[in-house]
Write a structure and sequence with these properties.
This protein is α/β, with parallel strands linked by helices. It is 35% helix and 27% strand. It is globular, with a radius of gyration of 22 Å.
């Protein structure tokens, strides 16, 4: 273990790492640092505002499953297992899915012009797991606390750095110092703004509608995604036979759809999904969130680094947002532990290595998702024929299809070594 608890100056509480954020990325970052023994118990502080109730952003939560769900790949599962969070997830709050079907609005879901993935072809037990957001956050927080993370409630108002430490000030006047500051406070990161790191990107002028549905036909442990000119529609399988809807549409259309009564909304989903699962009926209210592409121009500064949505926000069409963020956490933990000596935590050379590693991977993913959204949103007839043919061509090339699936699982690409050796969850 590189660091153990020790006293620091009396000006404010001192730790080794300060993580700003209140979500899964923040707690997983702390868990990764502790699991990798980069720092010891009591040396990581997670600073964040009290989390809002699920009703605040996602409508009234379902009695069994929160409206916010995540599709987690194998690399994410392995990281959460190493952190101790996966083991704390109730079995009824996660669901392993085995297949995925992707098709264009002008094609058929299981036709020659669609794209299909099956875990059996990969020699894997599944293609990933659908996890309830509220349960994942609770499990990650409990695991981080059990490992020795300190939770400090409050909002940050100022940050200063020098060659040896970083200091932050909270809204109530308290101060905290450490060797490394990690921003994990989301796409609207206050930490990123205080560090003076700018972003680029654009708004999609779309909202993603989310709800849970009962369908006439069984989902068959399959994630279904149909690309429409208005945006992609995904139906993710849940353990009780229902499906979780994620439907991206223009903002005006989202407002219209949310104003429909439950029966009319279900009929709209039935039509938009091409009746792939038969008639759809709402079992929850409908919530929504705005979509944008955003990426930080820099991931690191002296004694500071960005992870997760604070560094990059992508379109949800591939369900990779949290997976990319968790890979950030794993990479930063591996890079931070590579120096082997006290005093190197927060060293700019190490942080630059993290930036080069993850920024290239994340930019590649964000650009690919953005290009897919533009191509499938085009109403050009010639382009429509090309994209349908392209899906069919990829579907008929097993080695290409396999590479796509392995990357989505986090089993291919440039991932931290310890995740390739980590035990299966």
């Amino acid at each position: 273990m590189r660091r153990t608890a020790s006293a620091r100056g009396a000006a404010g509480r001192g730790v080794d790492v300060i993580i700003v954020g209140a979500g899964v990325t923040a707690t997983a970052m702390a868990g990764a640092l502790l699991a990798r023994k980069v720092v010891g118990p009591g040396r990581v502080a997670i600073v964040g505002e009290p989390t809002a109730a699920p009703e605040g952003a996602w409508g009234i939560p379902d009695s069994q499953w929160d409206l916010r769900v995540y599709a987690l790949g194998r690399a994410s599962q392995r990281l959460l297992t190493a952190c101790g969070a996966w083991q704390l997830l109730p079995p009824d709050k996660r669901y392993a899915y085995e297949r995925m079907r992707v098709w264009d609005a002008q094609g058929e879901p299981e036709g020659n012009d669609s794209l299909g993935f099956d875990c059996a072809e990969l020699g894997e037990p599944d293609l990933g797991s659908i996890v309830e957001g509220r349960a994942l956050q609770t499990a990650s927080r409990r695991a981080a606390s059990a490992a020795g993370a300190i939770f400090i409630e409050g909002g940050m108002t100022a940050v200063t750095t020098d060659d040896t430490e970083v200091r932050i000030q909270l809204r109530d006047g308290r101060e905290l110092s450490g060797e490394l500051l990690i921003a994990a406070d989301g796409a609207d990161s206050v930490t990123r703004r205080l560090l003076g790191i700018e972003t680029a990107g654009h708004a999609y002028h779309q909202d993603a509608l989310v709800a849970h549905l009962r369908t006439d036909k069984p989902h068959r442990s399959t994630a279904w995604q149909r690309f429409l000119p208005s945006g992609p529609l995904a139906l993710l399988p849940l353990p009780d036979g229902r499906s979780s809807l994620v439907w991206s549409v223009a903002r005006a259309e989202a407002l219209r759809l949310r104003a429909l009564d439950p029966e009319a909304f279900g009929a709209a989903v039935t039509a938009a999904s091409g009746e792939v699962l038969g008639e759809c009926s709402l079992t929850t209210p409908v919530a929504s969130f705005p979509l944008k592409l955003q990426y930080a121009l820099h991931y690191v500064k002296r004694r500071a680094a960005l992870v997760g949505d604070a560094a990059h926000a992508v379109h949800p069409l591939a369900g990779q947002g949290l997976n990319l963020g968790l890979l950030d956490c794993a990479t930063l933990a591996e890079v931070s532990g590579s120096g082997g000596e006290a005093g190197q935590l927060g060293d700019l050379r190490q942080l630059r290595r993290y930036e080069r590693w993850r920024r290239s991977e994340n930019l590649l993913a964000a650009t690919a998702f953005d290009a897919l959204e533009r191509v499938f949103a085009s109403r050009n007839p010639a382009l429509a024929r090309l994209r349908v043919a392209g899906l069919g061509a990829v579907g008929r090339l097993p080695f290409v299809r396999r590479e796509f699936a392995l990357r989505a699982l986090g089993l291919a690409g440039d991932i931290p070594d310890f995740l390739t050796r980590a035990p299966m969850p």
